[in-house]
Amino acid sequence: MNHEEIGHPFLAVHRSMGEQIHALLKSNEVLHSHISPVEHGDDFIAFPLRSVDFSELLKNEISAITNQPLRLIKRTPHVMEKVDPHERIQEVVKHWLKQLAPNEALADQGAFLDTLPYKWERLGELILFPSGSFGQNILTETSKEEQHNLWGAIASALNATSVGIQSPIAKDRVRSSQAVLLHGTSHVNFIDHGIHYEFDACKVMFSSGNVTERRRIGSMDMTGETIVDAYAGVGYYSFPMLINAGAEHVHACEMNPPSIDGLLRGAEANGIADKITVYPGDNQNSLSQLKGIADRCHLGLLPSSEAVWGMCLQALKTKGGWLHVHMNVKEEEIGDWKANTIHQFQSLSDTMGLGFSIRGDHLERVKWYAPHVRHVVFDVECRPYES
């Protein structure tokens, strides 16, 4: 590692990799959220770190992406611009507490301040705080009008118009959002790396943490290709494949009505409505209509898309193509899972008489899904056996 100067630690990377590394540091909670990135020469940007003592696994990931050893620099405080939205929330809440008539019912003020969030997700003008943010005691002891004033002030402090609380994704077939709106509207309309998304965040799940994979899939050359997206959602991956990767057409399977609404709205807003065909309902039915048409299939369901592996193989053209398989896998089991996945696809191909030779190409570690569990994407190539 290369250390320079004295002060706070920053990680310097080439600008072309800035967004990908920023998302990786943020998702692993290594990025210092109270300090802004800084310029480092003409071609580099440096991101502030909470500490240089983060995992070797993450360091190796960063080195693999940048194709060079980690470059750590240090900057003195006077060159750093302080950005602390958490302090703004603290100030808003403290001011709100002072406006309340002091009485015994507000004895838990200190405990309430301890529950204020340090991180959140922004979807356009909507801020979604993590589950468990903001204690319940004081909120149950205040009026709806007083709570309305609090949420409005917090939204304003974060330059947003709406706020809500995120909840665990529903354990239903469509992985519905269970976000609870506190102030404003749950209908979001925003641009994410040049792509327009529009949906109801209280009905649809959208993971900002998957930005690196959306960028990766959009960076591939899919010029003129026909794609089957087996779990299209609101266009998380369909849109990057059409807009950035150059795909000719996407056949998008989706069963959640609010997601379909967002998918259609986004396709119209991005000017690609004529390049996407939506198949509502269970993809077990819709995929049966799509045999032999695809250059590649995207299987973006977590924790597993295994239920439609065979049907997605059948969707490929006779000349074969690619499968992009999302999965949650324990870190120590990734190697075995890759080998088993290739074996399963090969067995399916042989059983169905498709004549494909299956090989695993690249495995992308998208993010940590849970302790010791990775969200990964495996790029699987399927080609006819050589005669």
Structural class: alpha/beta
Work out the helicity level: 25-40%
- The fraction of residues in strands falls at 25-35%
Q: What is the element string, with H for helices and E for strands? A: EHEEHEHHEEHHEEEEHEHEHEHEHEHEE
Strand order of the largest sheet: 13-12-11-14-15-17-16
**Rg calculated over all Cα atoms:** 23 Å
Distance between the termini: 50 Å
CATH fold name of the largest domain, please? Answer: Rossmann fold
The CATH architecture term of the largest domain is 3-Layer(aba) Sandwich
Overall morphology:
globular
Residue runs with pLDDT of under 50 for 5 or more positions:
77-82
Fourth-tier CATH superfamily name of the largest domain: Vaccinia Virus protein VP39
Helix-strand layout with pairing:
Blueprint: E1 8-14, H1 18-27, E2 38-40, E3 44-48, H2 56-66, E4 72-75, H3 85-99, H4 109-114, E5 121-123, E6 126-129, H5 136-140, H6 144-157, E7 162-165, E8 180-183, E9 187-192, E10 195-200, H7 211-219, E11 226-229, H8 238-243, E12 249-254, H9 257-269, E13 276-280, H10 283-286, E14 296-299, H11 309-315, E15 321-330, H12 334-352, E16 356-370, E17 373-384
Parallel strand pairs: 6-7, 11-12, 11-14, 12-13, 14-15
Antiparallel strand pairs: 1-3, 1-4, 2-3, 5-6, 7-8, 9-10, 15-17, 16-17
Helix pairs in contact: 3-6, 11-12
